[in-house]
Amino acid sequence: MDNKIVADESLIEKVRATQGTAELCDATGATVALLVPPAFFKELFLAWADSQLTREMLEENRRALAEGRVLTTTQVLDRLAELDRAHGGRARVTGSSGRCQC
Q: What is the pTM of this model?
């Protein structure tokens, strides 16, 4: 993670004492952050990721990979740069459709 906050030992001890999730609040009682242990965060993240992909999607991705129908990030970026050059630097990908507008 890019953002890291170093807490003093007093706060660390309070967080450890919760033995689970905790709310971090300011002096007014407003929630500033929700704290979850790393293992629990990983469990939640994996459950969320599983809910976003169907078995069919995973199988199609496996087939595409096996058949060589996938592009690397570098290949995608190269193609986008090529499109941009072809449209005089005016190409813009907009919206979730990924359509190029020039």
A: 0.47
